Structures are given as structure tokens and as C-alpha cells.
Amino acid sequence: MPNFDQELDASGLNCPLPILRAKKALAGMSEGQVLHIIATDPGSVKDFDAFAKQTGNELVESKEDGGKFYFLLKKS
Amino acid sequence: MSEKKLAIIATKGTLDWGYPPFILASTAAALGYETQIFFTFYGLQLLKKDMKVKVSPLGNPGMPMPLGMDKWFPVLGTAIPGMESMMTAMMKSKMKSKGVASLEELRELCLEADVTMIACQMTVDLFDMNPREFVDGVEFGGAATFFEFAGESDITLFI
Fold first, then answer.
1. For A48-75, how does the pLDDT look when each residue is reduced to its tens digit (9 = 90+)?
2. What is the three-class DSSP state of B113?
3. Distance CA B29, CA B116 (A)
4. For the whole model, what pTM was predicted?
């Protein structure tokens, strides 16, 4: 069982597309659901942190593995 | 918490300078800002359905050029006919390869996110521009229209 409800692959996309795609995906989800995001833009680490702080959605996890960045965002 | 507001004035009509207004506006909208862009003078080129904006190396010593051309190429060389089109094509393909969105894509994302776009009526008249060439949803107004929103904005930017 994956620990998320929906996945967004933003690999290869650059600022601000990962954030905009994530926002769009979250809009179609319900409260408490978790979005898993995969990105390759190094700037997305700070950006998803800032996005979570400003929108109130919780950044449950943020990690790097093999040059890719993985985020878990819980919709508030 | 009431919604934050961002007001931007977009004055430039080149490929490179078209990015800041659309990147900031689309991101602000994603963060929950109510956002408005006021397009004036050359910035109006960014509203045309058929956006033909270019990037120019002319008079732009900060622009990196391929093959170290920015180091040894004479300044006047950047004025050679066809140079703008060539640099524009190269810039577009570079952006595509790096996953940077096109201006059209970012503008569409702004419109989807309800970013208000206002065309400066005075400039439209001055340059005899045809409003039908603009994307749908553009509003028309003047300086007072800008201040109505900017006056209560948290952030105002002139680009």
C-alpha cells in the first residue's frame, strides 16, 4: 500500500511548473489526502517548503534520492 | 486571514522579459494571492494571441551567447540582420530542453488561475493596436484602474 493517494511526476519540469502542477493536482483532491510529487528541479526543495508554509498544506516529507526529489504533501 | 494581493506592471515586450510577470503571477495565484497584471507599452505584446516576441543580444552585454560569442563577437555584430531570430530560436530550444515553460503556457496558466490582465487603453490607442488580437479575458483600463487594485495590494512590482 503506497502512503499517498495521488502521484505527480514533475520530472524535467522547471520553476514554476512543479508548484503549479502540484497546486492543480491538490485542487482535485479532498482534505487529508496525500500527494506524492517527483521532481528533478533542485529549486523545488525550497519552493515546496515555501508553498506548504504559505498555503497551509502540510509537507509531510521532502527527500532526495539519486538526483531526484520526492515530496509528500497533505492537503489541508 | 484575508487574501493577499499582488499587482504587477509589465512594460517589456521581449521573450526574456516576458517571463518575470507570468512566472510571478502564476506562482502567486497558486499560493492564494489575488493577482493583477497591468500591461503597458511594449508589455502589450505579451497579450497577443500570436505572441511574436523575440530576445535580442543587441545592447545586452549580460546575455550569454553560444560558442563564447559574447566574449569576442564585436558589439555591432549583434546588429546583423537575422541575429535576433537566430538567438530567439536558440533560446526557445534551450528553454524547451531545460523544461522551462513557454510564455504561452505560463500565460494560459495565469488565465486559468483567474489572474486579471489589464491592457493599458492609452497604449492600445497610441500604437493603433487591435484588441481582437489579444487573448480572451483581457480587460482595458488606465492608471486609475491600476491604482484601484494596487492601492490595496501587499506587493506591487514594476517589470
1. 999 999 999 999 999 999 999 999 999 9
2. coil
3. 10
4. 0.88
**CATH number of residue A51's parent domain:** 3.30.110.40
ipTM for this model = 0.83
Residue B67 lies in a domain: no
Chain A within 8 Å of B115 (Cβ-Cβ)?
no
Q: Name residues 4-33 of chain A within 8 A of B (Cβ).
A: 12-17, 19-20, 23
Q: Is residue A62 part of a domain?
A: yes
Query: Is A1 a domain residue?
Result: no
Question: In chain A, what residues touch B98 (CB-CB under 8 Å)?
Answer: 14
Lookup: cell for B122: 492609452
- Residues of A marked active site are found at 15
Give the residue on B whose Cα is nearest the Cα of A21. Answer: B30
**Domains in chain B: how many in total?**
1
d(CA B64, CA A69): 29
Question: How many domains is chain A partitioned into structurally?
Answer: 1
